[in-house]
Amino acid sequence: MAERTIASQSLDPCPINPVVDLVFSRWTTPILWVLRHHGRQRFNQIERRLPTISPKVLTQRLRQLERDGLVARTYYAEIPPRVEYEMTELALSLVPVFETLVDWSEAHLHKVEQARRAYDSA
Amino acid sequence: MAERTIASQSLDPCPINPVVDLVFSRWTTPILWVLRHHGRQRFNQIERRLPTISPKVLTQRLRQLERDGLVARTYYAEIPPRVEYEMTELALSLVPVFETLVDWSEAHLHKVEQARRAYDSA
DNA sequence: TACAGTAGGTTCCTAGAGGAAAGTGACCTC
DNA sequence: GAGGTCACTTTCCTCTAGGAACCTACTGTA
Description:
Chain A contains seven helices and three strands; from the N terminus they run αααβααββαα. Chain A is mainly α. A three-stranded antiparallel β-sheet of chain A has the order 1-3-2. Chain A is elongated, with a radius of gyration of 20 Å. Mean pLDDT of chain A is 89; it is low at 1-11. At the A-B interface, α1, α2, α3 and α7 of A face α2, α3 and α7 of B. Chain A binds a DNA duplex (30 and 30 nucleotides) through α4 and α5.
């Protein structure tokens, strides 16, 4: 490992922080998961599939996902109004990321449980 | 996370939530990133590389990572005391996950910026 | 004598996320 | 005319993660 100056030490950002803020902030992965596995969904459909989310927070998250280009919102000016949400192509490009995480969970998550039990008993 | 019980699994089956809570909670990826790219590090070395973290929070995060089996802590009973932190094998198994995220960022993150500009100008 | 380095611990406090519950408006049903 | 549907919006409130500042014991150094 090469010598580094003090100045360069502080300039050492974690390059995955932006994508972590984007994809792994609260409720975003459950929402994307619902849209991925159930296709286009109306607001109340998503709400029913995520029983512990409040409508205020669901609205906030969907707006954020729409602004980030991960969710497409389609409004139908009917009475009563109808709104449908679906994943964009950009969000679909995240599917391999999610699959990597699922694979890691299946292979290694039990070791985390083991480590916690060992730590707590010591 | 406490509500993620058997009952909610049928309605809320996002299987990556546990690993998200584990790996992508605040400060954990920057800490792991520092350990990955600079090897074993002492407490103050990590602190200097993450200029905006407070010592209290750094202690909390390191304890949590140690409990989860992602970081190994070695204490040397010298005067003044010396403590070194390093990634465990379990944490090293996450490296492909991080690389997947880096790849996605390089390929797609600029589209998020575009989407935000388009949304904000509309 | 005074101070710095070491790895944190402790106390106090605040900003902000997020939950609960009620409201909105236009229409349809009973 | 009372209530339901839909997609939110608004208001109020609580909880907690996290920041700031200070403290610990011990020694080497100026």
